[in-house]
Amino acid sequence: MSAAGTLVADSGKSISIEERFSQSGKSKILRVEIPYDYIIRVVETNGDWPADSPASN
User: What CA–CA distances, in Å, run from 37 to 21, 22, 26, 42?
Assistant: First the structure.
């Protein structure tokens, strides 16, 4: 599974990423904590995902 978001924290055992979005006219924040054991790769991007990127699906 792919995850995309802004890296907001690194505890030394896991990282937290968050995604900001609007739903029904309200601003929402989804924050996910991912343990290091489950991280395969972290890539810095400019925020523009190519159409064939797994994170865009």
Answer: 28, 31, 34, 13
